[in-house]
Design the sequence.
């Protein structure tokens, strides 16, 4: 084999392995290019107030982000502030954990939501206007099946810390049973492991509002003897209702609202 | 009397009446000079995330604002954003009111907190670091006795609109019975009128956490047959607990936290 042929083979092998790397390594960090849309001072003031209003749940239901805030939201979710806000909430959660008295009876529980809490669907929403379009279940389900959502870095760190402290971790998601395999695959791919239970919507949960379904599932855990110390979610419907956790942690999400 | 003497008397009378005007007219708008402290990009990112964390209640209890956010909070509460956020929340409240079905049985109720909800204590906090100092009850009580707190403009508009729509308005405050006269005087001075009931802490409420005291008082209203459609407050302890309103509206307040 001539030297040039050997080089070609090496080059092909190199390119082959290069192509494999993104699928072979856990892809736990969101890789998305930051937007720097120009937003006028008036829109900035309005959209900051809009974001206050949705993150405190003052707004109640909203179907899509306001037209004039589309660029603002793109800047936010692709930029430093989303990461910073997420890290702050993880810090709040850890500060609480360090202050609490665990029962150490194997029943100390923490609940995590999945979408926009453990896993980021930014690559999907990037292709769908970051919340500018009305939610469409069909393409989103195709995205879920790909099992390629990256982890939210701050949540992954918090998750690992809680797991090492001995918390039983429950994943309580609005996803359905038929998505169990894809969801487990995605969680492992993004670096999550050793959860106690993954709770998905069964046939009888399909038409319940998230706040009812999630409250019922929390209630079942309480009846099993678990102490729900904390709960992390990007939607108020992850956190409110009944059988709520001792402390609830609202992660940022200005892209969509789930009742 | 010479012409120059007559002019002097008129000038003195003019100055005398000018001095009286601020006390004679309802002073319903916050008059405070906007701060424009220089805040570094890192502090801005950190303090925006801190504000997210306290406004969503992720932070839980916090005694004073973080040192590095003192200038940020001064800029916020004296600037456009506090006004804009407050107006947005009032708008959310009105949008909800327009969507609801009133019972028209004389029992349609709305609850307002007072401090930093109907009345602004910014003139007091301006002299006390805008939340940089630990709360001190003695000077604050002296300030309450002055009965000079201005109205939050957005809340006054909302209040008037609700009153005209036929809501029974309940004022539920952490202030104590001995402050009833000063509180009523201040409310009237700032333009509020025709409330159904002003509920203050009685002797048996003194040592209850706000969230318990306020839940108990809401519960009494429910037992009297009132439908609590909405509740407005700057603290989560105004809004959470039991016997909560159909919808709760969290007003901004990055200056202090009440459990």
Sequence:
């Amino acid at each position: 084999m001539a030297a040039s042929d050997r080089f070609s083979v090496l080059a092909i092998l190199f390119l082959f392995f290069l192509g494999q790397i993104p699928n072979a390594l856990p892809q736990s960090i969101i890789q998305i290019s930051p937007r720097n849309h120009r937003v006028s001072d008036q829109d900035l003031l309005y959209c900051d107030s809009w974001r206050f209003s949705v993150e405190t749940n003052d707004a109640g239901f909203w179907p899509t982000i306001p037209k004039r805030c589309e660029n603002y939201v793109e800047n936010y979710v692709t930029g430093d502030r989303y990461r910073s806000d997420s890290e702050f909430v993880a810090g709040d959660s850890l500060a609480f954990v360090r202050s609490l008295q665990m029962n150490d009876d194997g029943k100390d529980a923490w609940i995590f939501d999945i979408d926009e809490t453990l896993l980021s669907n930014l690559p999907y929403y990037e292709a769908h206007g970051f919340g500018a379009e009305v939610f469409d279940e069909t393409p989103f389900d195709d995205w879920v099946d790909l099992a390629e959502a990256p982890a939210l870095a701050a949540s992954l760190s918090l998750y690992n810390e809680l797991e090492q402290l001995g918390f039983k971790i429950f994943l309580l998601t609005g996803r359905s049973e038929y998505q169990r395999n894809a969801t487990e695959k995605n969680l492992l791919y993004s670096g999550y492991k050793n959860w106690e239970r993954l709770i998905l919507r069964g046939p009888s949960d399909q038409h319940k509002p998230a706040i009812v379904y999630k409250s019922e599932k929390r209630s079942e855990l309480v009846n099993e003897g678990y102490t729900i110390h904390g709960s992390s979610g990007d939607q108020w419907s992850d956190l409110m209702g009944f059988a709520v956790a001792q402390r609830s942690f609202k992660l940022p999400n200005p892209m969509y609202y789930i009742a």
